[in-house]
From TrEMBL:
The lineage of its organism: Eukaryota, Metazoa, Chordata, Craniata, Vertebrata. Keywords: Cell projection, Cilium, Flagellum, Repeat. This is MORN repeat-containing protein 5. Gene3D superfamilies: Histone H3 K4-specific methyltransferase SET7/9 N-terminal domain. GO terms for cellular component: sperm flagellum.
Amino acid sequence: MEVTGSRFCGSTERGRMEGWGSYTLPTGTEYLGELRDGAFHGRGALLFPGGGTFRAVWHRGVPAEGKFTFADGLEYAAERWDYCDGYDRRFYTEICSGLRPAGISQLTNLDPPRKIPEGCYDCGDGFYNPNTRTVTDYELRFLRNAGKPSVSSVMS
């Protein structure tokens, strides 16, 4: 089923999304999870094109409780959020070890920063190349293909 540029894969009842399914928005954001009466309802996750994930328990299309995880694995915590808030833009290593002298900027949390090949993204255990959809380690050895996540891996 396709509506307003979005795509739905799953079962329907009376013309409305029902049960487990995948709903992809025109922006590329994908919802994987339970649906009821045409709305997100139950356990489900939003997978954002940049790699972030929002896992939640939904009630009639509204998240009742949930957790956002950034593409780099950092989990957002509403309480005691100590990472680059509106008042303190330091990296975690700068909070622990202090700021560097003027003129020697720290551009990442790692010091010295890893050299990231152009057009690639650091994913913790290696680099993701969006053109080849592969992850290689920091020595440029193949680690894995990066396909779409399965429903079971998203829900855990």
